[in-house]
Amino acid sequence: MRRSFLLTLLALSCRDPATLVGTAVVVTVDSSDVRVEQLRYSAWILDAGSVLEPTTRPATPAGLLATSTTVRVLLKDSLGGQTLEVHVDGLVDGGVAGDGHGEVRVDKGFERPLVVKLLPPTPMCQGCIGPQGDCVSEVGPQACGKGGAACVVCDSVMADGCSASGACGCGDGPPCSAALGADRCEGGKCRCGAGAVCTAGQECLAQTCQCTPTSCAGGCCQGNMCVTAPTSSACGTGGRACLDCGGSACSAGQCAMSACNQTTCPTGCCIGSSCVTAQTNLACGKGGIACESCGAGSCDGGVCSGSCSPATCPNGCCQGGVCLAGTTGAACGTGGAACNTCPGACTNQRCESSCGPATCPQGCCQAGSCRAGDVVGACGTGGASCVACGGGTSCSDAGVCVVSSTCNAMSCTNGCCDGTTCQAPPTDTACGLNGTRCVACVGTLSDRCLINGTCGCGAGPACVPGQVCDGGACQCDPATCGGCCDGAVCASGTARPKCGRDGGVCVACASLQCRMGVCQ
């Protein structure tokens, strides 16, 4: 269906519009890429002023217009031989949803056609904003961000890339840190020195996973391993070396009778049943007490110095050999123990975890908080840990995952609906979340399904019309770009700084004008 409006505007004189003859321009607006309710026209002759002041048709919106709309602009004969420039705004709810621009030579006594194609507004910066105010679309560790946020420089030691969410990370995970038992990111994985990340009861110091009073405050160290269930042969506490009780009992981390003690080892410290007199920062102590690791510090006369431990950090917590206040969610703790990362708040130097059967009898617990327990992503009751129901199941009002006979937002939170079938997790050919209709992301504008359930090109969003997704990146597509290619962006090609047409490379017209995509 075509809808035609009649604009009969005569510059500086009048003409009977019913004749529909004489000097005129017939403007056809192609809005196939931008569905609109109204069109706002304006036209002018370069260096001669306005011929058509902004005029909106229809005056009152009455639904979406057809994708092709035609108007006729009657002109004064004296304008023959000059170039008419026409600009059209496509409106939805009074706002501009797209615009287009075109030029045509006016011929006295003749109607000349002009096609103006509406394109969506230039998309906002999908990457991050650099220090000079420029949009950085190719984000990476040197310029990381998303959605027009300020670019940040990732720690080159702890991170090797910028994730799809615009955050620094190591491989597919978060950036490495001392709290994760690492001191570097190599090959997309967090590591401690040349080895893997440290396990529970260890901290990464001097490129080595060590058992220290900070990392093993509730147990004893046997080599570099933290023993939290003491026995007669490995007894101790406070992260000092485990002692051999020589067959006697071990109670509360203390031997009833140790083979190595103050009498047998007055000038050194004890590991197992052995007396260590040649002390190092890994085995420090005197007077027959259990040896301890000084961590990032050193052993001076049998006493650790320059390190973080319960003795040097009694009112805070230790992270990476440094004593912290222990009052934040990122570093919470006290008594010189290793800092904890809280899923919620850190209150009185303890991570809040008040959710349980007594405080959440009708729901389930997730990250320390009580949830209703009636949704697919957090299902449960009685204060138990919430569970995520699998694809094709829903969470009943009783907090139990049950097989669902229909596919909807409740039964398919983690996937999309292909008819009555829940596709979870989504795939490149069936993409979506929260029970939306599955869509295929393999096409000219996208090549994969992103973790947020939308189609994307590479790690970013899908390309816009006038672009093509090639090799995981949006590129300007000469085949569909009606203007000119300004790098990866399809520009309208009607502005002097970016002039061009038919998908060619944009050029700057300098002192010339850009007319119909050509510098003249």
Helix/strand layout:
Layout: E1 3-4, E2 24-30, E3 38-45, E4 49-57, E5 68-74, E6 83-92, E7 95-105, E8 111-117, E9 128-129, E10 135-136, E11 149-150, E12 161-162, E13 168-169, E14 184-186, E15 189-191, E16 203-205, E17 208-210, E18 220-222, E19 225-227, E20 250-251, E21 254-255, E22 269-271, E23 274-276, E24 298-300, E25 303-305, E26 317-319, E27 322-324, E28 327-328, E29 331-332, E30 346-347, E31 350-351, E32 364-366, E33 369-371, E34 374-375, E35 378-379, E36 393-395, E37 401-403, E38 416-418, E39 421-423, E40 448-449, E41 455-457, E42 460-461, E43 467-470, E44 473-476, E45 484-486, E46 489-491, E47 494-495, E48 498-499, E49 504-505, E50 514-515, E51 518-519
Parallel strand pairs: 1-5, 2-8, 9-11, 45-49
Antiparallel strand pairs: 2-5, 3-4, 3-6, 6-7, 9-10, 12-13, 14-15, 16-17, 18-19, 20-21, 22-23, 24-25, 26-27, 28-29, 30-31, 32-33, 34-35, 36-37, 38-39, 40-41, 41-42, 43-44, 45-46, 47-48, 50-51
Description:
The chain is mostly beta strands. The protein is built from no helices and 51 strands. 41% of the residues are buried.
Keywords, separated by commas or semicolons:
single chain, elongated, mainly beta, 520 residues
Structure summarized in a few sentences:
With 520 residues, the chain is mainly β.
Note the main sheet.
4 strands, mixed
Fraction of helical residues: under 10%
**Cα-atom Rg, whole angstroms?**
36 Å
Shape: elongated
Strand order of the largest sheet: 1-5-2-8
Number of helical stretches of at least 4 residues: 0
Distance between the ends: 37 Å
Mean pLDDT: 81
Strand content: 25-35%
Total strands = 51
Structural class: mainly beta
pLDDT < 50 stretches:
1-19
